[in-house]
Specification:
mainly beta; 2 domains; two-stranded antiparallel ribbon
Length: 217
């Protein structure tokens, strides 16, 4: 099909799978069938390929101009609208969180569990330590503790922590640009509250946000 070939020629052709399809041509078929949107390919938003987007829309006859889900992303506890849902990296239980404990005496080991409360959040969290460098802990959120097998699971209480950053993928919504101040809803947030922060890295649909705040600017 000529239309399919033309659209495929305007895609990056990386066959990276970040759109959820094994190859770019499978993504093209989904576009033509109306089951996918142009934004499903995160690389089209880059400067290198952005000029191809209106050409693809023209070939699609106006389809693929919006995101698959046009409903606003709303926080449950505050009703605020978020730019995107922050989802875990593939195969991981939650977004990665970087924590700065206010107690300099804490020293959990990689693989151990910690109990902490993020500054500004009333909810106690439990996390599993992935890394610790220069006083910054990288954890996966795994709590509440009963999910780990019972109240007898060993953990270190590291107290109040500043959440330095989140690392994960955009599961729903627009992939932001570096330097943007964004509002996001962490998929694993127990309160389902909108957070804010500044994007310091954006590659495909993987994003890192720092300067985390529960206040939304």
């Amino acid at each position: 099909m000529a239309q399919e070939k033309e659209i495929a020629g305007l895609l990056p052709g990386y066959n990276c799978g970040e759109c959820g399809y094994r190859q770019c041509r499978d993504f093209v078929v989904a576009l033509l069938e109306g089951g996918e949107e142009i934004a499903g390919c995160p690389h089209l938003a880059s400067d290198k390929f952005a000029a191809n987007m209106p050409l693809i829309r023209q070939l699609l006859g106006g389809h693929g101009t919006e995101f698959k889900d046009s409903k606003p992303i709303l926080g449950v506890i505050d009703g605020l609208e978020a730019d995107f849902v922050f989802s875990p990296l593939p195969g991981e239980p939650s977004c990665r969180e970087d924590l700065h404990p206010f107690d300099p005496g804490v020293g959990p080991e990689v693989g151990e569990y910690v109990r902490y409360r993020p500054m500004g959040c009333p909810v106690t969290h439990f996390g599993r330590v992935l890394d610790m460098k220069r006083g910054i802990l990288t954890v996966h959120l795994v709590g509440p503790i009963h999910r780990l097998g019972g109240d007898d699971v060993a953990f270190e209480d590291i107290g109040l922590c500043l959440v330095v950053g989140f690392d994960g993928i955009v599961g729903k919504g627009r992939v932001p640009d570096v330097g943007q101040t964004v509002k996001f809803l962490p998929e694993h947030c127990m309160m389902q509250k909108v957070h804010s922060g500044v994007v310091v890295h954006s590659e495909g649909n993987r994003v890192r946000v720092e300067g985390i705040d529960l206040k939304v600017w």
